[in-house]
């Protein structure tokens, strides 16, 4: 729809420009031609009046007198009014016909080109030189449309594969839970220690099952749910501290820690729920992909009119190829089906969309020492 509006706008501007140019030509020519003819006739009459045509008189006095009488009569404006009007009307009609013919020709050419825009057999749209600008624009739209269509098919394929993967993985913890709970139900005199161990395993499997179901819901919602922001002034320092506190049980379990660095309070205008989701995803990724017993560092600082949040973890380097795709929908840096770090491949894609809706940007860099996710958001305007 958007490219269609742009195309119509371009076409309307071009036709308007062409029409104005031809109207100007009509006005100029319809005025200049009669004036030039009138001036020419007057000059010719003056020339005849000034020059002697004795040779014509010698040949035929009667022809000479008729010649002199004719050019004397056309020196009056009255005698020229009707011829000038006739010439003007004819000239205007001719020019108007040419204008309409050219404009309708442009419309036909653009109509054909519009059909070629969605024709996969046509690789390049050709238009006359006068339509160079709109031709380039339409070819650009064609390339973008084909690129988006290809991307949509790839995303749909990835989504289908991911749904199959999640459905398969949901069965594993579910089967395990059923097995342990069945044992607990069947054996009444099970030792307390063993009973507690089975309950703990079943609980872990239920948490994993919950994560997989949430991922499945994310996949189902992503294409149908439009992100709407509800902005308010919020303190980034406090938000990050609260998010880090929520990760305390997870950090203790994997024997990792998070250090938050900042020198001053920083406020932005944003949606607290959506931004919490962004930083939650980034911290969750940092925990999943960092080295054993390592420290995750979060730096919060100002740079000109922006707030910058850096989430840094020490772990395996992400290749340039993977970095270029890391914010794509359904892309999973860890393609292992059994890995708990694999995820649905939507976390970073959603994070990028939320940040960009806040007029910010998110960047990922990685080397052999650390991986950094940098979020840039505009500060509150005073």
Structure description:
Residues 1-7 and 336-342 have low confidence and may be disordered. Strand 6 and strand 7 form a beta hairpin. The chain has 3 domains: 2-117, no CATH class; 153-222, Orthogonal Bundle (Helix Hairpins), CATH 1.10.287; 232-378, Heat Shock Protein 90, CATH 3.30.565. The protein has helices at residues 2-50, 54-59, 61-73, 77-117, 132-186, 192-222, 236-246, 248-254, 272-289, 320-325, 347-357; strands at 232-235, 257-261, 267-270, 295-303, 306-313, 361-366, 371-378. It contains 11 helices and 7 strands. The strands form 2 sheets. Strands 2-4-5-7-6 form a 5-stranded mixed β-sheet, covered by helices on one side. A two-stranded antiparallel ribbon has the order 1-3. Helix content is 65%, strand content 12%. The protein is elongated, with a radius of gyration of 40 Å. By secondary structure, the chain is of the alpha+beta class.
Task: Detail the poorly predicted runs.
Answer: 1-7, 336-342
Rg is 40 Å
| Helical coverage, percent range | 55-70%
CATH superfamily grouping of the largest domain: Histidine kinase-like ATPase, C-terminal domain
- Write the CATH fold name of the largest domain: Heat Shock Protein 90
CATH architecture descriptor of the largest domain: 2-Layer Sandwich
> What string gives the helices and strands in order?
HHHHHHEHHEEHEEHHEE
Number of helical runs? 11
Mean pLDDT figure: 77
Coarse shape: elongated
Sheet with the most strands: spatial strand order: 2-4-5-7-6
User: How is the main sheet built?
Assistant: 5 strands, mixed
Distance between the termini: 38 Å
Text of the CATH class of the largest domain: Alpha Beta
Structural class: alpha+beta
The count of β-strands is 7
Strand % is 5-15%
User: How many domains comprise the coordinates?
Assistant: 3
């Amino acid at each position: 729809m958007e490219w269609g509006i742009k195309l119509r706008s371009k076409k309307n501007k071009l036709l308007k420009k062409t029409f104005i140019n031809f109207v100007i030509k009509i006005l100029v020519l319809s005025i200049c031609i009669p004036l030039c003819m009138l001036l020419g006739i007057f000059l010719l009459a003056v020339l005849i009046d000034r020059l002697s045509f004795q040779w014509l008189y010698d040949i035929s006095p009667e022809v000479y007198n008729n010649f002199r009488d004719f050019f004397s009569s056309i020196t009056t404006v009255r005698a020229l009014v009707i011829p000038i009007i006739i010439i003007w009307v004819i000239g205007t009609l001719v020019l108007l016909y040419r204008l309409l013919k050219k404009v309708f020709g442009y419309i036909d050419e653009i109509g054909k080109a519009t059909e070629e825009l969605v024709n996969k057999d046509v690789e390049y749209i050709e238009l006359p030189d006068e339509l160079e600008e709109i031709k380039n624009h339409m070819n650009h739209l064609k390339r973008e449309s084909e690129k988006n269509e290809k991307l949509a098919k790839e995303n749909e394929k990835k989504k289908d594969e991911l749904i199959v993967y999640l459905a398969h993985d949901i069965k594993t913890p579910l089967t395990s839970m059923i097995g342990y709970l069945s044992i607990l139900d069947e054996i009444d005199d099970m030792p307390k220690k063993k009973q507690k161990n089975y309950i703990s395993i079943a609980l872990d499997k239920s948490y994993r099952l919950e994560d997989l179901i949430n991922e499945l819901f994310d996949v189902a919602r992503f294409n149908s749910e439009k992100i709407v922001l509800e902005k308010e002034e919020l303190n980034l320092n406090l938000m990050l501290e609260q998010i880090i506190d929520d990760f305390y049980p997870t950090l203790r379990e994997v024997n990792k820690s998070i250090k938050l660095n900042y020198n001053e309070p920083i406020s932005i205008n944003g949606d607290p729920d959506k931004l919490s989701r962004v930083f939650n995803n980034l911290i969750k990724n940092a925990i999943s992909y960092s080295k054993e017993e390592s420290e995750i560092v979060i730096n919060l600082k100002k740079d000109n009119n922006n707030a910058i949040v850096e989430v840094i973890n020490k772990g395996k380097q992400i290749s340039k190829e993977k970095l270029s795709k890391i914010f794509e929908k359904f892309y999973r840096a860890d393609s292992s089906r059994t890995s708990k770090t694999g995820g649905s491949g939507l976390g970073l894609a959603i994070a990028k969309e939320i940040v960009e809706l806040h007029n910010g940007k998110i960047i990922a860099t990685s080397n052999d020492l650390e991986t950094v996710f940098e979020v840039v958001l505009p500060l509150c305007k005073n």
